[in-house]
Each structure stands twice: as C-alpha cells, then as structure tokens.
Amino acid sequence: MSNTYLVTSDRQDRSTADSTPPNLNRSVTRQDEKVTTETRSHACFTAAFRIAGLVFVGATVAIGNGQLPAEESTVPSEVKLTEAEANRLFTLRVQPLLNSKCLGCHGDTADDIKGDYDVTSRKALLAGGESEEASVLPGDPDESPLMWAIKWESMEMPPKENDRLTETEIQYFSDWITAGAPWPSTEVQAEIRHAESQVRENEDGILISTSGGLADEWTYRRYQPNEIWAFVPLADKFQFDSIDGFIGQQIDEANLSAAPMATPAELLRRATFDLTGLPPTPQESKAFNQAWQQDADSAWTGLIDRLLASPHYGERWGQHWLDVVRYADTGGFSNDFERSNAWRYRDYVVRSLNEDKPYNDFVVEQIAGDEAAPGDPEGLISTGFLRMGAWGTAMVPQEEARQLFVDDVVHSVGQSFLSMPMRCCKCHDHKFDPIPTQDYYRMYATFAATQAGEMPAEFLEEENRNGFEANEKMVDALFDYAEVRRAKLVAKREAAAKAWYDERGLEYKPLNARKNDADDAKPERHCGLTEEDQGRLKVREQDVKIWKRRKERFQALAQSVFNGQDLFKNAMKLRQPPKVNANWVPESFIYTGGDYTAKGNPVTPGVLSGTGVSVPGAPSDDPYALPTTQAGRRLAMAKWIVNPDNPLTARSIVNRIWQYHFGQGIVRTANNFGVKGSQPTHVELLDWMARDFMDGGWRMKRLHKLIMTSDAYRRSTQHDDLAAIETVDPDNKLLARFLPRRLTAEEVRDSLLAASGELNRELGGLPCNPEINMEVALQPRMIQFSLAPAYLPSPSRQGRNRRSIYAYRVRGQADPFLEVMNKPNPNDSCEFRDAAAVSPQAFTLLNSDVTSDRSIALATRLQKLSDDSQRQINAAFRLLLGRRATKQETESLTAYIKEMTEYHTQSPAIKIAYPTEITRSLVEEFTGKPFEYTEWLPVFENYESDLKPSDVDAATRAIADMCLLLINTNEFVYVY
Amino acid sequence: MTSLPRREFLYGLGSSLGALALTDALAKDVIADGVAGKGPLSPKPPMHPAKAKAVIMLFMEGGPSHIDTFDPKPELTRLHVTESKRTKGLATGKRFYVGSPFKSRKVGQSGIEMCDQFVHMADAEVADELCVYRGCQAESLNHPEALLHMNTGSRLGGDPAFGAWSTYGLGSVNQNLPGYVVMTELALPQAGSTNWSNGFLPAYFQGTRLRPEGSPILDLEPPKHRSRAHQRRALDALAALNQDHLQRHPEHSDLAARMESYELAYRMQTAVPDIIDLKSEPQHVRDMYGLERKETSAFGRQCLMARRLVQEGVRFVQIFSGGWDSHDYLERGHGSRINSVDQPIAALIKDLKRCGMLDDTLVVWTGEFGRTPDNNHRGGVTALGRGHNVDAMNMWFAGGGVKKGTTVGATDEIGAEAVECVHPIRDVHVTLMHLLGLDDNKLTYFHGGRYKQLSQFGGEVIKEIIA
Question: Is A719 on the interface with B (CB under 8 A)?
C-alpha cells in the first residue's frame, strides 16, 4: 500500500504530484466535496476533465503509507519519459487541455486568432505569437514562455480565474515539454485513445457507457467511482440490518457518543409536527404520557401508527411534494392565468399519500396516468404534475413557447423523480454527469407529443365539492358586474360609430366588419369614448375573461395533458382540439446549443443511458430506446423510472423522506444526485433503505415507521459533550444528536389556528382564500393590459381558516405571511425550505392582523376555559408550547396581563371596516395618463369577520397580548 | 460556550432599551461592534478595489424607446409611415415606420444626444455625467420575462436579483435598514416581487419593498391601539421568555440570531420612518426633486429617498417607474413618462454630486428592452407607437466609475438592431458587478446542481463603459 494516496482535485496537489512514484495504477480518492455557500467558480466552465493527479514523472524517493515527504521535492524530475509515454501524455492530457482551455481564442477560427498565437500544431507552438518568440522550448519547460503564461507568471492564461489550470495540469505541460514536446500524428493519437477507451477502469477512474456524447472526448471521459455513486447499481449485501447499525458504526468510528433519548414530550411534539404539521392537542399529550408510562415502546409505535393514519399526514407530506413540483393555482408570467382546476392535482397528491399508494404507482400516474389508465379521470388529474411549471404564451414565438414547455417537463421529471436536474445538458453534454445531450433530447422526444390541455375529467366520489354553489354564485356576480360595464362602454362607442356612418349617409358596420377598412373610411377607433372610458373598457374586458375563466373551477376539467400534434397554443385556454391526428409522429432533433432553430442530429425517444438500465423490449442495438409511436412514450419512460434496477429512483425518494424527518438528507442535495451534488453521508444505509423500500412494495408509511422507530430519530437535540460534537461533526452528518428545526410557514399558521380553536380541518376541495394583509390584498397588481382583480378572502370563517395547503396560490401574489416565513417562490423547485430569521418575520408575527386575530380568538377560548389568569396562562402554554408554564412564567405573565389590562382600558381599539368597493387608478399604457375605475368587492357585503381587537374588551385584549408573546417565542417556532 | 457573552449582551439590550430609549445612533454603533459584525448582512470587503459602493437603479418598466430618448434616428423621420418589411421578433401583418414625435439635440459639453422632452437632464451639469450605452441586447419579447432577465439574469424567475447578489457579496453598511431596498409605484411591475427576490440565496438578501402608500414595510407598526411603549414592553417580556428557553437549549445556535432579529425590527421601526420622512429636507431640495409638482412628486420622493438611503449606508436601491409600453400614442405616452422622471433624475444626479456621493454611487437607468422602429396596425388603425425590441435598447449610467460624458455602442440607422459594442444583458451585469468590486465568476452559490452566478454562464466586462 506504499503508493496509495489521498489526492484532491484542487490545485493544491502539486506537492503530492511532484513526489509521487511512477505508478499509473494508483488508486485515487477524491475528498468528499463539501457543498457550502463558499465562493466558488462556476461549475459549467471548470474543467470538463476531472483528472486527479495522474503523474508521469517520478521522484526517486519512495514514500510509505500515503504520508507526504518531510521535505517536498521541488526539483524537476530527472526521469525521462519514453517516447510512448510522452505521446500518451500529449494525447490524453496536453491535447485535451489545449483544446478546452486555449483553442477558443487561439486557433478555433483561423481569421481571428488572439495575439496571432496558434495552438493547433507543434510548429505553431514553437513559432509563438506576435512576439515571434518560440513559446515552447522542447526539453526546457522553465524557459518556455507557454509555461510562464499558464502559471500566470507573465501573461495570465487562460485569462479567466475559473478556467485557470490546476497545478496538476500545469505539470502535464511541464512534463511534456521536458520530454521534448512530441506531437504524435493523428493516427497515433487515435490509436492511443482507442486503446484507452477499451480499459473500463484505470488510474483516471471508470468509463461510463452512454449513448454517446457530441465528441469522443466526452464519450470516453472517466469518473471517480464515488462521484457517480448514484449511477452505480444499489448494493445488495450489507453489513447491518437496521438504521442504527449503519449510523452507530460511523459515530463509533468518530469516537463520539450518541445523545440520550429525547423526552416523551419532545418526542410527541416532534412526531406530531413531523407527520401532520400540527401540534399535539393537550388531550393527545395526556394520553401519550399515560401510555408511555405503561410501555414506552408501544406508546411510541402506537403514536406513529395513529399519526400515519391521520388524514393530516397526507396534507403535511403532500406539501413537501408540492414544493418539489412547484404547485400553484395560476400559470405565472404576464397574464398569470388561473389554472382553474389545479386544486384537483393538489388533492390527488394528498389522497395518494393518505392511501399509502405505492410510490412506483405514484410516479407512473404523474408522468403517464392518462396512458396507464385511459378513461380514468384520476389518470388525467395525476398528470397535472406535467403542468406545474410557470408557463405563458403571451408574446413568445410559438416554437419557443413549445420548447419552454417541454424543457420544463424534462427538467422537472429528471429533478423530481431521479434527483437529476436536466437543464445542465440541454445545450451541451453534461459537464459533470454521464448524461450526453443526446439523452436530453431523447427524453425531450419522449414528451414531444405531449400537449398541455384542460381535459374533461369527471369528478371522483372522493373529491370534496363543498362550497361549489356559493363560490360559483360569487363568481357569476363578479362576471355580471364586469360584463354589464363592458357592454355599456361598447354600446357607447358603437352609438358614436353609428352616428359617424349616419352623418356620411353610410350604412353602419360593426367593429369587426369595419376593422380592415381604410382609416378614413371608418370612425376613429375609440370614437365616443373619453380617455377614461378607453382605459375602463380594457379593464372590464380583461375582467370578463378572468371571471369566465374562474368559472372553470366548477367544471369537470383537469389541468392535464393529451397526446397530439403541435398546434397553436394560447395559455388562456388550452383545450384538446376536436380532431387529434393520432397518426402524427413528431420528429425530434438535438437542438444544437439548446437553440430550437439549430436542428442537429435526429433523435428518437429514449431514457438515460448512463444508468445502464435498458428498456425491456427495446432493440438490441439501441437498448435505451422507447416506443416511437405517438402514444405510449411517457408510459414507457415512467415504467423505466420505476424499474427496480433504476439506481436513481428509490434512492431519490428515500433520501427525500429521510431529509424531511432529520432536517437534512443522507444526500444534502435532494434534487441533485450528480457529481456536483453532495455525496451521501451514509451510502450503504441509503441503499439498504432503498432496497427495503422496494421490497416492501414502495410503501412510504412503512418507511416512515422504519425511520421513526430508529434510535437516531429519537435522540435528543442536546448532547453531553457538545464541544466534541461541534469539533468533530459540526454539521451533524453523523446524527449523534437530533437537529432542532423551525416550523414551516404553513405549520406556523396552521398551529395558530389549531391552538385558537379556529382551524377547519376539512380535507381538499376548492382553494380557500385566507385573510391576508389587507394592504396587499387590495394593492393593484399589473397583468397584461390591465390590473388583476383584488384578492378577496373567503367570506366565512370556516371557509378562510382552513389548512394552508388549501390556500389559493397565485404566482404573481404571494400571501405575505407565508412568504415572509420562507414559503418558497413557486417558480423554482424547492428541495428544502430555508428558515433564515429575518426582521420582517418579527413585524409579521408581532404586528400583523393574522397573529392579532389568532391571539384574540385564543384569548376568548382561554376565557371560556377559566376566569383565572393562572389557568389561562397554563392552557395557553399547553396549546401553543405543549407544556405547563413554570411558576416564574406564570407569575410574570400574570403581572403582564394585569398591566396590559390597564393599558388597554386606556387605549381603545379602533373598529376596522372592510370596503365593499375601491377606486383604482391605472396609467393607461397608450396615453401615459392615469384613469380611475371602481372595483366591486362583493365578499365584504356579507363578511363574517374574525373577532377583532375592537370586538372584545380590554381584559381579552390583555390575555391576547400574553398569547401573542407565546406566539413569538423561539419555543413556539422551533421543534426539538 | 462561546455564545454566552453574546447572549448576555442581547438580554441586556432587550431589558434595558425600553427604559433608557437608547438612541438609534448609539444602537447602530453597538450593533456594529457587537452582534451584527457576524451577521449575514455585515459589510464584506469587495473582491477587488471597488469604484462604486452603492447602486441606485432606476428601472423604467414597459420598455422605454431608445429612439425617442437617447438614441435619435433622423432616418426614421424620413421614412415615417412608409411601409416596413421588418420581420424580426413578433412582427406580423402590415407594418409601417414611425418617426419620433420628438426633436433631438446634443447637450452639455459632451454633446450627448437627448430628445427635447428631457429639459432638466439636458443641463450640462447632469448630461455630462452620463455614459449612454446603446449596445445592449435583451432576449425575451414580453415584459415579465424580460424584466426578470434584466433583474435576475434569468428569464425564468426564481434566481436572485442583482441587488440580492450585491448584498450577498458586499453586505450592507447600515444594519438598521435593509441592504437592498425596492420602491415601486402603487402597482407592482409585471412578475411582481420575483424581480427583487433572493431566489436561492438565503432570505437575508431579498429586496425589501418600501411601499409608497400605507405602511412602508408591511406590519412595520403595531395596530393603532398598541403604542411603541407597548411594543417595547412586549419585546422585553418576550426576551425574558426567550432567555429562559435559551438556557434550556444551549445546543441550539439559531436562537440568539432570532432574538436579535426582533431587536433589529424594533430599531427599524424608527429608522424606516426617519428615512421616508422628507420634512427634514430643505425646501430648495424638495423643490429641486419636484416634490411639489403633481407629475413628478411620486418619483421625486422616491429619488430623494434613494439618496437618503444610500447616504445611510444602504447598498442597493431600486426604483420602478412604469407606463413606458407605448404601442400607441407614443407622443403622449413617452412625453408624459419623460416629464415625470426628468426633473427628479436631474435632481438626484446633482444632489449626489452636491453631497460628494456621485463618485462612489452608481446610478443606472434602464428598461427591460427597447422598442421597434416600426409598428403594426392596431384595431385597424395606423397607430403611432412602437413594438417590443430585444435587438436594440438604450440605458445609461452615471457616477460609480463609469466614463462620463460618453456614448458607447450604436444601433443601426433606424434603431432596429445594435451594431456596435454589442453585448447581451449578462455582460452589463458583469460590468456593473465589476464596478462594485465583485467578480461575477467568483460570486457564486451552489444551487440546482451547479455553482450559479448572476450572469448564468459568465460574461465579459464592457471596458468601454468604465472610466
């Protein structure tokens, strides 16, 4: 083992390289690349070749056990390479570097060679550039100007920091020049490359066979086995047979001890939030404590079973999935059109999780439910997954809009199910992962016949259709309001038009009929309308369209897809055309550089070849091919994804589930298992769980239980030897203790509603509109040609105070409460929530109507329980924090309530009124002048307001102040 | 535990502030020395010597026409209403050229070209500070995508805004104010707050909107019946509860930071109203910005606030001013827009100079794309307006290390396409970052499988712009 080394791929490895014995078969280990926020160069432009420390020179010193020599040898080696070695060095090392790092400016285009310096031949290199000095002196690297330039000693070449050569790469040049700078013929180079391509594993790593890159250099590049761990088949033999076996081993190896078990109260709160996103009720606490005293283990498993059976489980875990897929009720961009029936997909997700639908079915349904179960409405609803990206067609050329849609689907399928973001290989072969751009476009071809559509899909019995009638009535009223005003303005205009024709003794022509007449043969475009009228007409016209669209919510439609030919698309209305040409078969190409106008080689549908998992029934000369018929492409792709041999799929979901339980994944980058993602902390454990998951029928609830019954999950956040933990394992990779986590935005809101007793626990159905900050609700919002209508809260308390997952989600208008608590922007997939504590959160939690209203409701609830301050305080602690108040807390808060009662007696609260209409002002884009119009807010005509400070007396407001304190505590927002 | 002194400090601050009413000035120092020195927004040194310390970006939403502002095209006047055969972009149907309704002239010592609607900016004291750039090309033809591209480097939405990258790279000097402040009209621009999003960066770096009406920051103040003293009392009671909890959880490092965020919030409650209260500004300054004129008062207020914010150490200020989408009635549309920004912008430049701030404050004026030299019939009528143009636009810079009194790049003779010193948006981003002392290639963040940067794939510095 005297020549086994740890060599990093950084530029620091010079010292190692200089002193390494000449052994081409060294095993090379790359250090786990830590993914942090540290500044780093952009990955797409760092070396395409990842070559760690292959060295052809040798120092004569032998080194043992991987230790560096006491004194680093800086003297250039005396050992000369043989001719064959030097040729090989040039072909496999120097030439590719010249091509990737220098050629762009020095030789790619004959008429534009920077500094007249050409790197395309030995002759040109020896001749040098405009200085007319030789850049390479064969045999003498120290005197060769090329060496000075690449070391950044004279010129700085390549000029960009992130293209700069590593020490190892510089050494290749040095060694090559020492060896006389040979430049073997093209034939010899080809032989060397061919010979190399026959060796699966060498000192540079392993070859991964794919369908082939755009260049041989890519096709035959090598990977470090640990980097492409995700493409390697799952292990099938394991050292351990339990989670704690794997976890414990690494803790032992690090000489750490594991934290003690968390307290029963902590465990109850941890598990209840984890599985349902809600706090345990005081009754649940009591029952759990009693059960725990009788038999801790069975209390724990009983708790897990109860929580997994709760319908709130699907809501909580459904939210995780909706984060990944970017769920929203609108389409984004300039029109932000409502996706009226998107809620059916949201409910499908919740329902599937509650049913414990096998994950492989869940995957197939979302990619190809329509193909897997033709005629089944559920199959159409589930493919809503493919429609989750923000997408608009306004002023986007049709072909480009089409490409944006398919690109989004390819990326989302890769990222969501395979943890393999695909955007990186749209324009070129993947810089780091074994995914050639050909495979990108084969996947693209898989969706080439997939068209976005609002498809007829009968309502299912299990779908919640409560409130349809009242909701629809409101929309009808709003539609009528806009339509009446639109029609009036049109009538005014047409009356003037008619007068114009009458004056000239001409016959009146309606708008469309006169459109193409010459300017002087028809009345002025806005005749009869003032500038204000013109602006108003546009607003009303838009409103008519918006409310008409909103009415689709109540129709049996699903935001889904169908197979068919490319046709003109307007995102405002995406219906399947009456005639679909079932014989149409799309032609697909590699789009060179990602440009849809630059069609390259044709491609057929196919899967990711780098996984080595072929498609059953595919031709033997193209084992990764999918069917080329119009229908069935997606289904075949989906089946390939859930093939148990696929190394990515089960690992991906198991890692996601683990991540949500522990606050960090075994792989930290849940959306990216590629070379540039982070590497697994417990690769064997991941494989063991993935196998177990598949063997157990892809059931997620089973996996939750497996994880939650482990010791690792039940550990305390505290640790006896925190100092050791912080030194040895500051990121808690080893899981010697449990990490606290902050509640998500939805958990904060839902918990407040649960504590105040206001939560409506109804499942599913139409989006609900919680009351959001009224300034934001009524603030104007630009859409194309107009302003969007105001955000209107649901009129009833029950209708508003539902779980946050059901809140109407508009891409162009976030709920400020949820947004400030780090609910992610739905334009991008969120693999894990940010929990940064920023000051606007303090404003929101202290001063917003949301927390004020909840604290008033909670205060009245406490008053109903007891007249006694101490009891009220205790109850508030139980409801919000899950524990009793300490004596000291009770005393100081009793005093606080007293003080606040006095304060509020002196400081009456002002009654707030909700406006039933508002005046809007908008700058008319054609005239640059503002105009006003009235918007009707019918919701507030019969509004069942929440209890407001002015509705209650000083004593209640004082208790509410106490509740507000608890809502703002760290203890409330963190789970231990 | 190393966090112990910090904890004591915090508790002390929390429990004593109410009684002593520590002045904000003092608090600022205390914070600078104490907690905030380690905060995510604490000032960081630039990567290379910076020419600009702060940015004021004036974003003209809707696509201001270069042809009718700083890039006049006499040839178009000759071609006016003659048929156009252009087919680029979304050009469809019968098209005709549109000459500018405005006259243009050379102004100042530098002879910068400017349409005659700009009256105040034509003052040599202002005009000679400008570096007009005519070479930029956008990519997306519609507003939201193009706005997102100019603001975040990506048309898709979800990436961090330029201002977010700036505060990520440099932090902000004043810890009592947000590092990245955004001001808009009452209506948000298309694509809304995604334009100033922190994207995948932590939330500390998001743009904070100072709203023009109502509460400048949402829920900045408690409801009317709860006074500032009431708030202080609540914060002290909260600090006590949190302090006990902190002692029970010494293992949890996030607790102190969250406690501090409440104290910062309390300080912001005075710092923000102070900034937006313009009464302390002398009358001549208020007049200079046009605060008393109906047309200019809204934008004038925001420009004056921008100067005050930068003066107080805010890193990045962005003002959105909409209504530039003149598909029709170009003369009225652009005329009124120019009228509403001309005086405030001139005042801002002069005022920054007067305060000695222009040298290290980079002022940027831009839209999301330019406009076409021709138009299509609208509603069947020869509409005198212009369409969206991604191949040509203009923007200008002032202060902050740009070459003043120059025009860089050029468009063709009808303003259809940039032809000289042509660069994509990413190069503009790289150049502006460079002036701030940031290297776009080094200012990266790992997300979605790679190290991302504002320019997406790297870009080049437009040297011609830099002094």
Answer: yes
Question: Residue A873 in contact with residue A895, Cβ under 8 Å?
Answer: no
Would you say the C-alpha torsion A921, A924, A930, A932 has a positive or negative sign?
negative
The partner residues of A934 in beta bridges, in order of sequence, read A919
Q: H-helix or E-strand containing B193?
A: none
In angstroms, how far is CA A119 from the centroid of its own chain? 43
Higher pLDDT, A94 or A196: A94
Minimal CA separation from A25 to chain B, in Å: 31
Q: Are B98 and B326 in contact (CB under 8 A)?
A: no
What CA–CA distance (Å, rounded) separates A528 from A522? 13
Residues of B in contact with A837 (CB under 8 A): 254, 257-258, 261
Assess contact for B347 and B289: CB atoms under 8 A. yes
What are the tens digits of pLDDT across the range A540-554? 999 999 999 999 999
Whether the CB of A814 is below 8 Å from some CB of chain B: the reply is yes
| Residue A478 pLDDT | 97
Q: What is the side-by-side strand order in the sheet with A222-223?
A: A201-202, A205-207, A222-223
If pLDDT is split at 50, 70 and 90, which confidence band does A12 have? Answer: very low
Q: Which of A133-137, A398-402, A549-553, B130-134 has the lowest mean pLDDT?
A: A133-137
Does A693 or A581 have the greater pLDDT score?
A: A693
Give the pLDDT confidence of A837-871 residue by residue, as tens digits: 888 999 999 999 999 999 999 999 999 999 999 99
Rounded Cα distance between B363 and B55, Å, is 6
Rounded to an integer, what distance in angstroms lies between the CA atom of residue B105 and that of residue B410?
17
Q: With an 8 Å Cβ cutoff, are A965 and B251 in contact? A: no
Q: Which of residues 130-159 of B touch A (CB under 8 A)?
A: 140-145, 156-159
Tell me the count of A-B CB pairs closer than 8 A: 305
Return the residue in B241, B427, B454 with the most chain A beta carbons within 10 A, the one to mutate for interface testing.
B241
Give the Cα separation of A269 and B161 in Å (integer): 38
Instruction: Say which residues have a Cβ less than 8 Å from residue B59's Cβ, sequence separation at least 6.
Output: B150, B151, B189, B318, B319, B320, B321, B366, B367
User: Closest to A674 (Cβ–Cβ): which among B188, B222, B449?
Assistant: B449
Asked if B223 and A852 come within 8 Å (Cβ–Cβ), the reply is yes
- Position A196 pLDDT exceeds 90: no
Q: Give CA–CA dist A26/A43, Å, rounded.
A: 27
What pLDDT was estimated at residue A11?
33
Percent of chain B whose predicted confidence (pLDDT) is above 70 = 90
DSSP H/E element including A435: none
Residue of A nearest to B456 (CA): A42
CA distance A484 to A492: 12
3-state SS string for A105-153: CCCCCCCCCHHHCCCCCHHHHHHCCCCCCCCCCCCCHHHCHHHHHHCCC
Instruction: Calculate the average pLDDT of chain A.
Output: 89
Instruction: Say whether residue B336 is in contact with chain A using an 8 A CB cutoff.
Output: yes
Most B CBs within 10 Å: which of A839, A873, A877, A962, as the mutation test of the B interface? A839
DSSP state of A3: T
Gap between the Cα atoms of A820 and B197, Å rounded: 12
CA-based nearest residue in chain A for residue B453: A42
The predicted pLDDT at position B89 comes to: 61
For residue B55, the surrounding DSSP H or E stretch is strand B54-60
| B158 vs A825, A889, A893: nearest CB | A825
Q: CB-based contacts of A628: which residues, under 8 Å, 6+ apart?
A: A585, A604, A605
Q: How far, in Å, CA of B370 to CA of A550, rounded?
A: 35
A663 touches chain B (CB under 8 A): no
